[in-house]
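Why does residue order matter? Because the sequence determines the fold. Keep that principle in mind as you read this record.
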Amino acid sequence: MRDLIAKDFHWKAFSILMAMGIWFTVHRISAEPDKQAVTAPGVKNTYDLGLIAVSDNSDVHIAQLIPKTVNVTVSGPTEIMDKLQTRDLHAFVNLTGISSAENLPRDIQISLPRGVTVVDIEPPQVAVTFPKQ
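Structure:
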């Protein structure tokens, strides 16, 4: 029994201290009030963005996306939203792993600057079609 406690005592003590440190850190973070809820409400803007198709391994220039544009509503702090322009936002559809499709629904993804969040995407999906060759 004594060997059970004494063997590798330093590692066991270190493990207990690490577990306590992790628990206290998680407990402190979860007890903090949500900082976003405390800040003033952000400004909302809507942008009309053209869609692009992206893929990591195939040519997607022939892919047809319907519709070709989306309306994106974003929100963020006033100092960021005052400077935000359409060229700072990018709407894309990931077609990785797809080489043929007919009216395949795909989710639209938005690339945003830090501090800006998506409120709404209209429409949320596009139909992808690869023309017959």
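Helices lie at 2-6, 9-31, 35-38, 78-81.
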